[in-house]
Amino acid sequence: MVIEVRDLRMRYGTVDVLRGVDFTARRGEVVALLGPNGAGKTTTIEILEGFRAPSAGHVRVLGVEPVHGDEAWRARLGVVLQSWRDHGRWKVRELLHHLGRYYQPYGTPERSRPMDTDELIKTVGLAEHADKKIARLSGGQRRRLDVAIGIVGKPDLLFLDEPTAGFDPHARRDFHDLVHRLADLEGMTILLTTHDLAEAEKLADRILVLAGGRIIADGSPDQLGRQVAGQSEVRWTSGGQRHVHPTEDATRFVRELLAGDDGVTELEVRRSTLEDTYMALVQRFESGQGEEVAAL
Amino acid sequence: MKGHTAHAARLGLERGLREFRHTLLSADQTFNLFVMVAFVVVLVLQRDSTVEGTALSLAAVTMPSSLGMIVAFNGLVGPAGQLAVNREDGTLLRAKAVPGGVVGYLVGRITQVSLDALISATCVLVSGLIVVSGLLGGTNWPLLAAVFVAGLLATMPWGAVVGSLTRSPQGAMGLTMLPMMGLTAISGIFYPIYGMPQWVQGVAQVFPVYWVGLGTRSAMLPDEAAAAEIGGSWRHLETFGVLGVWALLGFLLAPTILRRMARRESGADMEQRRQAALQRGSV
């Protein structure tokens, strides 16, 4: 296991941000941590990165407890945080080359470190901007540089916190392509946070839904879809009138409908989308929370 | 592991040189230019007054004193401001995310602050020579270099401590600039210290600014100028003693505070500070 988290808890003052988070990630997996704002995604990822000590729980990243991770452990991680705007006076190639060299002593015969600077610049699509000052990059370019710095040491595990926040659709698509390429690269495990479901669906092998400080769903996009299956919608026209019927078993409903009514036209079956699933999950959870509060 | 730390330290040295080069070509140097102009004006005004008990012009005494002041100033304000800014913009967190990055960062900062102090001191020296020529010939360069290093060592860790404890770059600047200006006023930099009340002289002699100034004067002025100093002597032993104590206490305290600050540094805090900065309208 690359990541192993059991009963992770985090409390700030009197506020419980994480109330027992459990999950694992295997080598080469792309895992999305999805959740509404304030769900504790960043807190979780910062604990895994070793930037924050948890209040309680069992956490192992690459077999090491993050708060006790040494520099050799650090060398196997790539970190891309939300709001970096450092090194504005450095040039793109200059900074990437400089930071890459910190990884040099940690290379192994199987995994030489760091990556070649110019190749990496090409990979993230910054070749034209290699000699530009970092302060002059656009938001999307800056983000791609952040990712390049995150992977310059050829990490075994890469953390991406809200990687596409503030991107336009074009930049977003380019970025998704980049993540796909990275995942294929030397079996890199990627953990990314996002509040954008479409993004999680597109990028991840597995989605973890974090809400109210707990993982409330864990599975592939397909499995998640099936967890709240049944909420399909059948629409049809009969006798000049439009009908809509939500059903658990669309196949059976349609069979019976057609057997009993010859005048059915414009038949349509809509399976619930992952978005419906996600909204239902979060909603179900939040209403559950409401009951807890009401019970007090 | 030891070799890895040395590797990171070497990269830090390179980082300091690069960042120093970046500042050379930037607006940062307008400050040095401003200091040079102001300094020349002060020296011209002081050219015709002489220091009591000596044949030296006040300007000839102010020049080495200012050199000392500028060393202490860079040593304290430089690290405080840079650390505070680097906590806000994420440079420090970036350093934490890279193996050996914090070592590299610190060595880089020390390198850059030292070079900044050197360039500021050179500016003062060069502009001073326009008005007060003739001091160079009698200058004891090894002593001047020793005072320069001692002055930086006595102030830099304290600048780092302030930069670690404050919440914003503005706070760090306020907490270093204001005391620095106050100390400069009472430490015999622009006006001989014997003009001050006895108790003020006592206060000034607790802090590094007076001693760095005394040290630079002793390195550049003829020996008879010592007559105008407290006790009629250059007091080298006391100079390096007081600066040494400040350095020692600073280097005992700073690593703990720096480590605590670096350990606490996280993305969420940085985001908070960034939001605060946005509200102040400084981003």
UniProtKB/TrEMBL annotation, chain A:
Where mainly found?
A: membrane
Q: Which Pfam families match?
A: ABC_tran
Domain of life (superkingdom): Bacteria
InterPro entries from the xrefs? AAA+_ATPase (IPR003593), ABC_transporter-like_ATP-bd (IPR003439), ABC_transporter-like_CS (IPR017871), ABC_transporter_ATP-binding (IPR050763), P-loop_NTPase (IPR027417)
Keyword annotations of the record:
Antibiotic resistance, ATP-binding, Nucleotide-binding, Transport
**What is the annotated localization of this protein?**
Cell membrane
The entry's cellular-component GO terms read:
plasma membrane
**Record's protein name:** Multidrug ABC transporter ATP-binding protein
What is the originating organism of this protein? Answer: Saccharothrix coeruleofusca
Automatic annotation (TrEMBL), chain B:
Alphabetical GO CC annotations of the entry are:
ATP-binding cassette (ABC) transporter complex
Species source reads Saccharothrix coeruleofusca
> Which residues are the signal sequence here?
none
Query: Lineage in the entry?
Result: Bacteria, Bacillati, Actinomycetota, Actinomycetes, Pseudonocardiales
**Protein's cellular compartments:** Membrane
Outline the extent of the ABC-2 type transporter transmembrane domain.
57-254
Q: Which residues cross the membrane?
A: 24-45, 57-77, 117-137, 143-165, 172-194, 240-258
Report the principal subcellular site: membrane
Instruction: Name the InterPro entries on file.
Output: ABC2_TM, ABC_2_transport, Nod_factor_ABC_transporter
Q: How does it sit in the membrane?
A: Multi-pass membrane protein
Q: Name one GO molecular function term.
A: ABC-type transporter activity
Keyword vocabulary terms for this entry: Antibiotic resistance, Membrane, Transmembrane, Transmembrane helix
Which GO biological process annotations does it have?
response to antibiotic
Task: Supply the name of the protein.
Answer: Transport permease protein
